[in-house]
Specification:
The protein is mainly β. The termini are far apart.
Length: 266
């Protein structure tokens, strides 16, 4: 027993002597511009147009650097220009009510580099009803919700779906490849959702490029923070840097019709 005790003591001393503080020297890339450019047309025709500009940060940095000194405009295909002014926290606001079948070009000048993208208004359809199941999830004891809408037939359609509540958010990118002209649903399942909770569903019309961007982004996103958290790999959107193509931005530019539906869990 004495021999065993001595061996354990020597082993402990050996392990303690091997402890060493290691400083990780992580490579830090030059910050990239992150662009979230969304113009949403509501069911009643009103809209909210904003462009949010930030930059990437080192891995362990939790502060978000807002960009407040950029020049931001949107120009339609007829040459009419709509300036966007910085409000606060990287948000640029402007007065623009997009029209159907008109191309709009976003231009952002930051640090003497020009970023641009062109898109047009993409339509959506109303959310018609919510189906609730109380025996969903892996355990068979969770509440799951399906928000149904009817896809227009005869042309490809793409959608961005949100389910938002105080208990957690759910996102999805949908296309009608196998559901053209039929009912499609957006799926919502989060832990701890309970009767009396309110879930707000939003359905945005997007184009195929935006769908591919969001679908890839969501595949990489496992955290409940949503698709706009830090990603393990670079996902490029539809915005390019005309001045220096190698210094491409992150993010997207979209103009979407959006339908909303508020549901109280039964």
């Amino acid at each position: 027993m004495k021999l065993v005790k001595i061996i354990f003591i020597l082993l402990a001393i050996s392990l303690n002597s091997c402890e060493e503080e290691i400083d990780l020297d992580l490579n830090e890339a030059e910050p990239k511009l992150v662009i979230e450019a969304s113009i949403n047309i509501e069911e009643d025709g009103s809209n909210f147009a904003f462009i949010k500009l930030t930059t990437t940060t080192p891995f362990f940095n939790t502060d978000i650097p807002f960009v407040a000194d950029a020049t931001v405009t949107i120009t339609d295909e007829n040459g009419i220009q709509y300036p966007f002014s910085h409000s606060e926290n990287g948000f640029y606001l402007g007065d623009l009510i997009p029209q159907a079948n008109v191309d709009y070009t976003l231009k952002i000048t930051h640090k003497n580099e020009l970023y641009t993208a062109t898109t047009h208004l993409e339509s959506a359809v109303p959310i018609e009803f919510i189906e609730q199941r109380n025996n969903g999830g892996f355990t068979g004891e969770d509440i799951e919700l399906k928000a149904y809408f009817t896809d227009p037939s005869g042309k490809p359609n793409f959608y961005f779906f949100e389910g938002l509540s105080s208990k957690g958010d759910s996102f999805d990118a949908l296309k009608d490849t196998f559901f053209d002209g039929n009912l499609i649903f957006g799926y919502y399942l989060v832990e701890d959702i309970a009767p009396g909770d309110t879930v707000n569903f939003n359905l945005y019309g997007i184009n195929e490029t935006n769908y591919n961007f969001l679908f890839t982004l969501l595949l990489q996103t496992e955290s409940p923070g949503g698709p706009f958290e830090t990603q393990p790999a670079t996902v490029r959107g539809n915005i390019v840097n005309l001045t220096n193509p190698d210094n491409f931005p992150l993010g997207y530019f979209r103009i979407s019709e959006v339908y909303r539906f508020s549901y109280t869990v039964q």
